Amino acid sequence: MRTSNKIPLNLNGMKVSVIGGAKSGLAATKLLKKIGANPFVSDMNKSADLSPLKKIDVPFEKGSHSDKIYDCDLMVVSPSIPQDSDIVMKAIKNKISIISEIELASWFTSIPIIAITGSNGKTTTTTILAEMCRKSGLNTFESGNIGTPFSTIVLKNLNNNYYDAIHIVEVSSFQMEQIQYFKPKVAIILNLSHDHLDRYGTMKSYIKAKLNIVYNMRSDDHLVYNLDDKLLRESIKTEATLVPFSLKNQNNLDFSLNESMVYDKMGEKFLLLDEIKIKGLHNISNFLAAATAAKIIKIQEKAIKEVMRTFTGVPHRLEEVRTKNGVAFYNDSKATNLESVKVAIKSFNNPIILIIGGRNKGENFKDLQNLILSKVKLVIAIGEIADEIEKEFEQSTIVKKGSSMSSAVSIAHKNSLRGDLVLLSPGCASFDMFNNFEERGDVFKKEVMRL
Length: 451
Description:
This protein is an alpha/beta fold. It folds into 3 domains: 15-99, Rossmann fold (3-Layer(aba) Sandwich), CATH 3.40.50.720; 109-310, UDP-N-acetylmuramoyl-L-alanine:D-glutamate ligase (3-Layer(aba) Sandwich); 319-450, Protein-Tyrosine Phosphatase, Chain A.
């Protein structure tokens, strides 16, 4: 919620509470300190490592949130803190302005922003587009949900006057909850599917948070969106110029395709589909989204083609680990919702041994029944939801439970035959067993390499 119509660029001497001392919280704090604000950091985790704050003389507390957090003019909240939390509600009652780290960083950069969101494919598309921009000679800074906080990049460039530069920022629904003035020059929305319902309760609330990305966009800005996604198509409300991409439609698009070829807007041959290295129609869709945005900012066609020909994917997203005795092992740990699992399963023709499970985010595993029945020879259930998965799929296929990633990989190996494919595609959050999806994927790869 805005407290004025003007971005408060002068925060010198302002008291700012930063709630959450993880990566983005620390990055926001360092930026605040640099611009002359007086930040105070509070983290509920008593074991949080806040030692970097001592080096820049920033006070902090951990293990609980005291009333000190409300002695401020501005509050920067972690993406992990829901907008209906007690902290946010009390801050609103006290008339404290609340923003996200993404919002804060956007105040202190003049470099144009391309922001990318969607239920699936964000990191892949962000990486593809950043590579296209680099190949074309732009100073390119990727940040956000992809790993490096936006504030970290903005702080590094605070005193640099770039002429040809672009921010490529991956944003999640959590990061978009507390925005006021954040306004990308180009936004990309890849898709909308059930996700984070454990936080939002309803799809309507989830979609509302996602679509905050276009809240401040005007007619001279551009929204690149997936024309094939009916839910997204019907949900968009924006003043921005709409620029669709599609796997199916061939009319008046920057790129279109048939079974073997990508064509440009003039209907000229652009690229053979066989030249694209990464698997799955979903990745073709990601390429089209990135290429469409690249065209808007005048990226050279040569650079777009080169990246489409050479890009091999991102870690933990349908990542080939190894083939042993004719059995392929793939790491898709970044699949944290069921739509991602569906996409992964559809990407292969081999009989699949599926390792799935973790902490459920409010989704219904019945949605996987038909795919499990037709393409999966063995389900290995892991994590908190293992019992529920076993009950759901035991009538459709063989189900075994793995008490750890090591045991899951061992079960998969012992039950595999030449030509099978072992796929880790959890469809759940990782926090019941691991610190994050990266650790989950790394442990899977380590166990596979031990076989």
